[in-house]
Amino acid sequence: MQDPDFEKALKQLEDAVTKLESGELSLEESLRCFEDGVRSARQCRTALDSMQTRVEQLLKKSDGKIETAALHFDDENGQD
């Protein structure tokens, strides 16, 4: 289950991208929307970094080494 803050920030980022791609915003509205998107992207990055740290802590071996494994996520086209 993903963090609700991550989900909220991701939704805000997606909304900003959709608005910007529509081409219907004024220059000033586009700038504000872009700023909101950058802020949301930073929130997503912070949440993902936090999750990565938690996963690394869970994978840490008793000798202090971190056991790593590649994670593969499929995009909408079924590609890695």
Automatic annotation (TrEMBL):
One MF term in the entry's GO annotations: exodeoxyribonuclease VII activity
Organism from which the protein derives: Geoalkalibacter subterraneus
Protein name per UniProt: Exodeoxyribonuclease 7 small subunit
General function of this protein: Bidirectionally degrades single-stranded DNA into large acid-insoluble oligonucleotides, which are then degraded further into small acid-soluble oligonucleotides.
EC number, UniProt record: 3.1.11.6
EC class: hydrolase
Keyword entries, A-Z: Cytoplasm, Exonuclease, Hydrolase, Nuclease
Quaternary structure annotation from Swiss-Prot or TrEMBL: Heterooligomer composed of large and small subunits.
Keyword Hydrolase: yes
InterPro entries per record: Exonuc_VII_S (IPR003761), Exonuc_VII_ssu_sf (IPR037004)
Compartments (UniProt record): Cytoplasm
Keyword Cytoplasm carried by entry: yes
UniProt GO BP: DNA catabolic process
Recorded catalytic activity of this chain's protein: Exonucleolytic cleavage in either 5'- to 3'- or 3'- to 5'-direction to yield nucleoside 5'-phosphates
Family: Belongs to the XseB family.
Transmembrane segments: none
Gene Ontology CC terms: cytosol; exodeoxyribonuclease VII complex
Domain of life: Bacteria
